[in-house]
Amino acid sequence: MSIAFENVGFSFGKKKVFDGFSLKIQDGARVALMGESGSGKSTLLRLAAGLLAPQTGRVSGVPERVGFVFQESRLIPQLTALENVLLVLDGVPDARETAQALLTELGLGAELDALPASLSGGMARRVALARAVAYPSPLLLLDEAFTGLDEATRRAAAEVVLHRSEGRTILAATHSEEEAALLGAEIVRLGR
Amino acid sequence: MTSTISRSKRWLRTVCAAAVWLALWQILSMIIGLELLLPSPISTVTRLFELACTGTFWGAVGRSLLNILAGWLLGALAGGLLALATNASAAVRALFRPIMSVVKATPVASFVMLAFVWIRSARLPTFCTFLMVLPVVWTNIHEGLGSADAGLLEMARAFRLRRSAVWRTIRLPALLPHIFGAVRVSLGFAWKAGVAAEVIAHAGRSIGGSLYDAKLYLNTADVFAWTAVTIILSVLLEHVCAALMDRASRRLGAAADVKEATAA
Predict the structure, then answer these.
(1) What part of A 6-45 touches B (C-beta under 8 Å)?
(2) In contact, A84 and A47? CB cutoff 8 Å
(3) Which residue did the predictor score with more confidence, A156 or B6?
(4) pLDDT, tens digit, for every residue of B50-91?
(5) For B33, phi and psi rounded to 5 degrees?
């Protein structure tokens, strides 16, 4: 089932973010949302995740489970990198193996037992990526997911994400056309 | 090694400061030369030891501990439950906020006078301690419940984490420092309010009651000795409580620095 934004309107107080916005995303499609800061990219991702409800119009086809990389890493500080990933895999078979493999593929094999405070910004980002990718869901939402990674790491991480998310719909908010290209995503530009 | 040295230095400094104040007290007492007005530290300590050798003394200490800890426990429990209710509902919050402000601002003496009409004087210290502790615990826990990191809570919603997991990993670590703060502050309050209530209510064989009797018979050395008992017990309770909280925080993995670590 495709995700559809139909005439969606949304404001934060008096600040209008969307007015009559429509977009249809086919199952398994990869879409990169681009636009300047404040154009509503993150809001759109939250609407797609069901974290926000549209004030007018409707959003349909939002799956029950959604993997989300937020703009900030949002890791639980007292849990290790591995535990942060395992936290969202409650009841998933072979959760530990999956989480370990994914973190290792993302170059964090030596940091499995590290606490977020001891990780660099880029490492924390990759733990957040692993958490979202490992989460069994048909939709993956990436909000500036590769920010803070150097070019080589970014490429490698994008490859892991694509490899591990075959058949999944990916909706990414980004400022970088290169990042959109790495994901092989169709670009949708949002205006203010 | 360095921390041991600095700890022993700090300890030495504390002992020196205490010695200076004790010496000043002794000199002042000698200048006045009237034990009735200002007993010397030596006579206070002597009297304290004399009292400690009697069964009455331990009975009074036990009675006060019971009075105050019962009031503190009831106040902490009620404050915690009320905080859960006011955090869950804006209407309950609106209803209780002004009451809590009034209770917080009312002096112990007023409560004792009012409560005299309704309650037996033996129960007064417990009741007053309860009233003093309730708003302190409520304020801290209410704030703590609202202090969980909004970003982490949104992450938990996105990944549909179980309620128990959200409490264990996000809400409780944010709440623990507030609980510890509430316990520490309210224990100090409880002790002062409880003893004050015992004095005003003439609560028989208790620390406050003994203080009242000592004052009544112009036994100033006894007043000082009982005051010393109050201070010693308060400090002891605070230390025991701090040690217990430290152990609990280590076991529960308390993260007072939730926000800092998340930002990192």
Answers:
(1) none
(2) no
(3) A156
(4) 888 988 889 999 999 999 999 999 999 999 999 999 999 999
(5) 70, 20
Q: Is A48 on the interface with B (CB under 8 A)?
A: no
Q: What is the mean pLDDT of each run of 10 residues along chain B (264 residues)?
A: 72 91 91 85 89 89 92 95 93 91 85 81 87 93 93 96 94 91 88 88 84 86 90 88 82 47 32
* Residue A125 contacts residue A146 (beta carbons within 8 Å): yes
Compute the C-alpha angle A103/A109/A111, nearest 5°. 95
Residue B47 makes CB contacts below 8 A (sequence gap 6+) with B39, B221, B222, B224, B225
Contacts of B167 in chain A (CB under 8 A): none
**pLDDT tens profile B239-261:** 888 888 888 777 765 444 333 33
Gap from B83 CA to chain A (nearest CA, Å): 25
CA dist A136 and B38 (Å) reads 76
Nearest CB to B154; choose among A51, A73, A75: A51
Nearest to B125 by CA among B74, B62, B193: B193
On whether both B99 and B27 belong to a single domain, the answer is: no
Task: Give pLDDT, residue B259.
Answer: 35
Task: Tell me the chain A residues in contact with residue B155 when contact means C-beta distances shorter than 8 Å.
Answer: 68, 70, 74
Q: Which residues of A touch B260 (CB under 8 A)?
A: 77, 117
Asked if the C-beta of A95 comes within 8 angstroms of chain B's C-beta atoms, the answer is: no
Query: What distance in Å separates the CA atoms of residue A177 and residue A158, rounded to the nearest whole number?
Result: 14
Say yes or no: B185 and B225 in one domain: yes
How many CA atoms are closer than 13 Å to the CA of B131, on its beta-carbon side? 23
Contact A190, A43 (CB under 8 A): no
Tell me the CATH number for domain A28-44+63-189: 3.40.50.300
Choose the mutation target among B153, B154, B155 for the interface with A, i.e. most A CBs under 10 Å: B155
Which pLDDT score is estimated for A87? 96
Which string of b and e fits A135-150 if b means at least 16 CB within 10 Å?
Answer: bebbbbbbbbbbbbbe
Distance in angstroms (rounded) separating the CA atoms of residues B199 and B212 = 5
Task: Quote the mean pLDDT of chain A.
Answer: 93
3-state secondary structure of A69: strand
Q: Contact, A192 vs A19, CB < 8 A?
A: no
Domain count of the fold of chain B: 2
What letter represents residue B53's amino acid?
Answer: C
Token pair 């890493």: residue? A73
Are B26 and B53 members of one domain?
no
Host domain of residue B138 = 39-263
